[in-house]
Amino acid sequence: AGLNMAGTEEPVAVLAQPAAETPAARAGLLSGDRILAIDGEEVASWSDARWRLTDVMATGGNAQVEVRTSGGAVHRRELVLPSNTMDPAGGDPLVAAGIRLAQPRPAVRVVNDGGEGQAAGLRPGDLIVAVNGQPTPDTGALVKQIQESAGKTLALTLSRDGAPVSLNVTPRAELVNGQQIGRLGVQLGGDVPMVTVRYGVFESLWRGAVRTWDTAWFSLRMMGRMVTGDVSWRNVSGPVTIADYAGQTARIGIVAYIAYIALISISLGVLNLLPIPMLDGGHLLYYLVEIVRGSPPPARWIDIGQRAGIGLLAGLMGLALFNDFTRLFT
Question: Within a 10 A sphere around the Cβ of 219, how many other Cβ atoms?
Fold first, then answer.
């Protein structure tokens, strides 16, 4: 609720071109589509869209996605998302479904003196629109193309102060770790469109409560699917992963860090309320038995339950630490 009231800067939910034969491609989603709503609920940002679609993918199902195309038209697409095992080793399940955030076109940030970029006429602020007649997908793909084009001439189409400019540039060949790669002597970058997400006091409180409930229910569903084998047990994380992610979010900023701490707090709360002896949920289970029986459970039951609870928690902690160190060293 506090984050909702303070406001957060988040990427706009604009999609990249989905890969062929993915659920997003079959739904008719295209590059530049901005997600406006999912299942009738307004989408404020990319993180909001990711949360809603991940929730659908947790068990598989259909999502009605309302989008505004790059041309301004509004369409509703039916996105059929398969159930996913959510295996961390398998990468981002939304990317596999063709749902990716659009990357900005690469722009020249810095031109190094004496480099091939300067010799060809590149200037800071130039927006690279196409290479060899092909539209540039994103900065990372362009960097890779330049590195693979040592000694080969590239025809660049630029947008300079709103006017089109064409020029040719040949990346200089450099030997790096025994491999020849191309260099232009420029620094590339791109700005992702951002939106400020902020709500009033009462709506922030309501949204905070709803998100807490949704996160708790999502955690319970994931636990249930782990028990049935539909979700990978690699998703169980321990203190090492928690500390690692806490450090990463802290480096991003205070907002990301607080959001992560909130997520961990909810997850631990759900775990603590499971009906397992040794946890608060186990005590509540004993109280329920006492209400039904009219007297406390026999001491023998409690003793067996405590032993079983300790064994279960020890096994869960061992699995979490094993997953932690597996991620850390692989």
Answer: 17
Three-state SS sequence of 68-90: ECCCCCEEEEEEEECCCCCCHHH
Question: For residues 231 and 85, is the Cβ–Cβ distance under 8 A?
Answer: yes
8 Å CB contact between 98 and 24: yes
Q: Are 235 and 226 in contact (CB under 8 A)?
A: yes
Closest CA to 317 of 234, 236, 232, 235: 236
Q: What is the DSSP string of 237-296?
A: --HHHHHHHHHHHHHH-HHHHHHHHHHHHHHHHHHHTSS-TTSHHHHHHHHHHHHHHSSP
Structure tokens at 158: 């630029």
Provide the pLDDT for residue 137.
Answer: 66
Among the ranges 138-142, 230-234, 241-245, which has the highest mean pLDDT value? Answer: 241-245
Distance CA(86)–CA(235), nearest Å, equals 7
Q: Which phi and psi angles does 237 have, rounded to 5°?
A: -120, 155
CA gap 283, 169 in Å, rounded? 71
- Residues found in the chain: 330
Tens of pLDDT along 217-226? Answer: 999 988 888 8
Q: What is the mean pLDDT of the chain?
A: 89
Nearest to 65 by CA among 89, 88, 48: 48
Distances (CA, A) of 304 to 67, 107, 202, 313: 56, 66, 47, 14
Q: How far is CA 211 from the centre of its chain?
A: 17
